[in-house]
Structures are given as C-alpha cells and as structure tokens.
Write a structure and sequence with these properties.
Two copies of one chain form a homodimer. Chain A is of the alpha/beta class. Helices cover 32% and strands 23% of the residues of chain A. Chain A is built from nine helices and nine strands.
Chain lengths: 278, 278
C-alpha cells in the first residue's frame, strides 16, 4: 500500500501531516491526518490515539479545532484522524447531511447502493491501523475516541475489539442509534430493515456483553441541541449499570455540541488514554 | 451603539461570543468575536488582548484555530477579534485576496473607492475599544497582537498609540509594507501614490521614533513561504537596533505561516501580555 503525502506542517515541535491512499476496504481513495509527536522515531515508537469525527466532518476538523496536539506532544502520543466516509464521484451519496458522504457511521454496509464503498468499520478497525503501524514510528498500542457519530464509532469499535484498544472515550456520542432518528435513518440505509443486524453497531447493546471491560470516559454538554433527541446518554448509563460496566460520564452545564466543547475538555481525554497505555 | 449577539458558546468555563454593530468608522455593519474568561464580571473587570487577523480571515479564524482561550481563561484575560475589513454589498472590493474585503490593512483610506468604508485604523484604535469597554466587564488595560497583515496592524497601531497599550506582539508580521508587494499594492490603493503618506503605517518607519518603547515580542517561522518576499523581519531588526528599541524576535526552524504555527507558540504570547498588564 503506498501513501501520498498531501501536507506536512510543523506543530508543537512534531509533525501534522495528511496522506491519501487507495483503500481495499472502501474501494476508493481515502485521506487521513496524523500527528507525530517530536519524540516519535524508529527506536522510540509511540502509541496511537484514533479519533473519529462526526457528521459532515473530514480528517481536518479535529486537527484544526481541538487543540489536542499540544498534549500529544507533551505525552508522546500520535493521533490519527480518518475521514468520516468514503468519498468521490463514484461513491453513493445522499442529499442529507446525515447519510452518505461525510456520514459513514463506521459500519460495514450490506445494502445497495452503499455496500460497494461504505465499509468504514473494517477500514477503521483493521486496514488503517495496519497502514499506520507499517509506515510510521508507532507501536501497536491503540486508544480510540470520537465525537457524536464518531463517538458512536469509537464506543462500538472498542466494545467489539477489546484486545485491540487499551481505552476508549467519546464526546457527545450517539450511544443508542437503534433508538434515535440519526441512527435509524443511517442503519436502515446501510444495513437494511432488520433491526437484529443493527445491534452489533449499537453501544447500548454491545455494552451488555463486552469483555474485558475497557476503561471508558464520556464527556457530554447539557446545552447540546441533540441531547434529548439523538444522544440519550441516560440509555448508556442504564445499560452500563445493568451490566456492571464501570464508565465515567461527565455531564457539563452550559456546554453545547461544538468543537469549543471538545477543546475545553480534550486535555483530560488525552491524559486518560496516556494513563492506560502500558 | 447597540450590539446584536450572533453566537454565545461556553468554552473553558468562559464565554466565546460574536456580535455585530453599526460602525461609525467604517460606515457599515461590523462583526467581532470576544472571549470572556470565567472570572470576568462587573466587580472584576479583566484586561483585553486585541487580536488582528491576516489576509482573507474573519473574526473566526483565531477563535477556532489558535487555542488561546485556554490560557486566557487561566490568566483572566478577554480576547477581542475584529474582522479584517469592512464588508457588504455596498463596500468596495477587489478580485484579489490581498486588497479589499478581507484585506483592510488596518489603515484609514484616503482614496476612492476605498475611503467611504476602509477606516480600519480608527475602528481598531478607538471605536472598537470604546464599544468593548462600554459593554463588557473589561478594564481599559489593553494589549495588541496579530498575524501577518494583522501583525502589521498590531505593530503599527501600538507604535503610534503607546499610551493605549501595555505590550504588543505579532506572528509572522508584515514589518515593512513600503518594501513588499502586499504592502505596495494595498497602500497605493488605500492611500495613493505618495509614499510619504505610507510611513505612518509602516512598522520599520514608526519604530525609529516611537516612545515610550512598549514591550514587543515577535514570532517568525523560518519555513514561512512569505518570509523573504513579503515579511522581511531583518528590516525591523535593523531599524530596532538603530533606534535602540529592544525587541524580542524568536525565529523557529521548520515552522510555516499557518495557524499551526500560531497554535504552537500562542501560550508564550498570552503570558507575555499578561505579565505586562499592571
């Protein structure tokens, strides 16, 4: 697999870079961003935090707005940000912002016209880490986090792949897509009408039986416009309690769904993941 | 003068807000952003850092990308970001990115068709601080900083108004607009052909006789694409030396002209300004 460098900028004494590559999972060209801290080199491989962004985002939003590189540089951690879907003229799309390009929901689609390219679960779980670990001075220690749709991606991917990650976190995640309009629309399109097939992409379902229990940290603003209609953190709190799965959910008065919220609390999440790398 | 609130988001326990107002200087509606740290209130008025952005920017770039609010919250400082020019259908414009809307150069224009609205010097020096100090819980302690064209704005405004600011800083500033293509194009348009009228908007000229000498800090990346052709920090170093004006210019290998560079070093600038507030 060959990588094409799109950008390379110095930041906090490390490197903020973007690359494209032909993806075997999504059958199209994918772009990702990587931050390499100053201490990363072939004799000092660093762990990697994977960040999954939300609806309408690309690999750039977190890189430009969250302010995470400062702490990653201090702690010696790489951060990899994939795109939120396959893209391109030949990739199926939808007029809505919440389906199609920019809205892959981190699932493997089984339905036409989506299945040809919308295999974001495999891309994030396997192909991208393989690529990163073969081409950059990083170890195979991984953590995963994300925002909104990407919080859903991080939680579901971690709960299904507990041996691949040492910790998981999320900001404002969609925790129960089976039970919210965003999730119902996307999962119907990508997976079909049979709700049984949706369960493997729903954190509230997966937390019932995930083992071992990974350290999990969730941040939620209480002035988030999507809180009651789409996010429903109380559903995850209830399922975690029933399953005796210890999770930390910090709920914050006055904060909304934006990157200003993420920027305000990203430092705690970076430090949380660093603490759980061995 | 009445303010219309455009946005209000919680960030680092403070408020990141945007407002519009009818400007008497620029004779059009202007938008600005303000960050108010958590400790700001009517009985605890905080000092203000004014940030002037560069070509093509609005009031939003610094707010979204620099990561300054974290440190402003810690130190108890407001940050005000004006737009980079007058705007609107009735405001003169140019097809280039380096003249007209988004490129006001922080001067008072004397030439048609610009003079009707392009009075950014008066707006930034007088009207905007008056508005801020009348409407927000801030003191009349001020510092000023900026990037590229905004670094030019910060340096020239501070050098001409030493009693209004306690310190000045800049990232990648245009220090000698008389002697670079960006400056020559803009100053010819806004001020006319007589170079004598340009001198009051040129930091290399103003530093020769500015008094008292304000604390001045400049950050410059050495992989900046505009370094040799437009920015020419060596010109300011030479004039400052000739004038016995002590300035600190930190030049950094590998850094470019982008907000990734600003984000990497903004903390030092915020702390520098905080130290010089009485």
């Amino acid at each position: 697999m060959s990588l094409t460098q799109v950008s390379n900028v110095k930041m906090f004494d490390g490197k903020q870079q973007q690359f494209t590559h032909q993806s075997s999972s999504t059958n199209c060209v994918m772009q990702f961003a990587i931050y390499l801290p100053p201490e990363a080199n072939e004799t000092n491989k660093v762990p990697v935090l994977y960040w999954l962004s939300g609806l309408t985002c690309t690999d750039e939003n977190f890189v430009q707005k969250a302010g995470a590189q400062r702490i990653a540089a201090e702690l010696g951690m790489a951060i990899v940000c994939p795109d939120t879907s396959p893209r391109g003229e030949n990739v199926a799309n939808d007029a809505g912002y919440d389906l199609g390009q920019g809205a892959g929901f981190y699932v493997n689609s089984t339905q036409a016209p989506w299945a040809d390219h919308y295999q974001m679960y495999d891309y994030v779980v396997s192909e991208l880490p393989d690529l990163i670990e073969a081409n950059f001075p990083v170890s195979n220690q991984r953590a995963i986090s994300g925002h909104s749709m990407g919080g859903h991606g991080a939680l579901t991917i971690a709960l299904r792949n507990t041996s691949r990650y040492s910790s998981v976190s999320a900001f404002s995640p969609i925790v129960n897509p089976i039970d919210c309009p965003w999730g119902q629309k996307a999962l119907t399109a990508y997976l079909g009408e049979n709700v049984e097939t949706w369960r493997e992409y729903d954190a509230c379902e997966l937390i019932k039986q995930s083992s071992p229990q990974l350290p999990m940290l969730i941040e939620q603003g209480l002035t988030d416009n999507f809180l009651a209609g789409q996010l429903k953190p109380e559903n995850l709190i209830a399922q975690a309690k029933a399953a005796n799965y210890p999770i930390t959910i910090n709920q914050h008065n006055g904060y909304d769904h934006s990157y200003f919220f993420i920027a305000s609390f990203i430092e705690e999440h970076i430090r949380f993941h660093a603490k759980h790398f061995s």
